[in-house]
Amino acid sequence: MKNPDCIIYGLGYIGLPTAVFLASKKIRVHGIDINTNLLNDIKKGKVETKEDGLNKMLKHSVSNKLFSVGTKYIKSKIHIIVVPTPFKSKNEPDISIVEKISKNLVKVLSDGDLIILESTSPVGTTERIRDIIYDQKPILKDKIYFSYCPERVLPGQIFSELRNNDRVVGGIDYESSLRAKNFYEKFVDGKIHITDSRTAEMCKLVENSSRDVQIAFANELSIICDKANINVWKLIDLANKHPRVDILKPSCGVGGHCIAVDPYFIYSQYPLESKIISQAREINNYKSFWCYEKIKEKFDSLNHKEKNIRIGLLGLSFKPDIDDIRESPALEIAKKVHNRYGPKRVLICEPNLTKIDLFNILDFKYVIDNSDILVFLVNHSIFKNLKINKKKHILDFCGTFKQ
To answer: Which among 133, 288, 266, 144 has a CA at the least distance from the CA of 210?
Structure first.
């Protein structure tokens, strides 16, 4: 595609749906990625996905020449970076991919171009992109616009949320913010809120860190209630009847590509100041270990009395009713239990997946019928209202029964 309206760098979980969505709004998009197999699939108009409607929109946008892909950098007035920013360790975020793209961008940038970073990033990364580009090509100084706009979407609901959610845009200066705002207004029905780039970067991290802290309170409460012999689900229901109390529900930990990761971006830069944030991460990580210990305790106590006790693990995804297992605490628990007791003693089910490399995925009804201990790790809708034999031993870590 010659001179597209915008270019998206990174065609993963967020980048590809974003590109397709923009194309559906008659915005000509070119996508760049290093995964040549993915690029070939995109050109054919079909990729492996469970995002409802993605392939239909993809095929339409490709056939209408509104969306093209490749590996080479080309000119455009708008460049959107949506690449991974993983961690080298829990204390060192890796923005090397963002930096590499910034260096390559210099070849195609012209006066008046706008660069937007959407990837979750440490505070100051947008300024880092500016510095890289200006250092390599000083002639562009003060002639390029830079802004940060964090994505706020859930897998499975990406198109709806791209359209309806409010967005925060933060430029390195007011003109950069305004130009980014004008771009997002072309396809976002929600409000566009202007700020500076550092505040926008921190906003993304704070949103998910706040949720992590709230979940940590619920998870810590569940551990306390277990020791105090109190039903935590009933307790939370009662406490939430207070008009100014809204306690979240406990779980077996916290997973996904945002809540389980974003707090570390803050902690890595401000370790001495991030006391509550770091403690919340420790609590939510510990909850997975605690669940594993409860499973082991139950198995060992029953195994002394009966032979061939089997454990049924129900749910592997990081949240209900999706197939995403990134950073999933349920998956980590399953690995530990499976490694300890072996495939003959451990039956595993995830109704949203048909296979996984680590172990055999079974039908959930088979798991329930053939297990002595039933461990509910994820509160999938399909598990609700089940009639369970009273002889089964149930460990409910996600509130499936709330008994």
So the answer is: 266
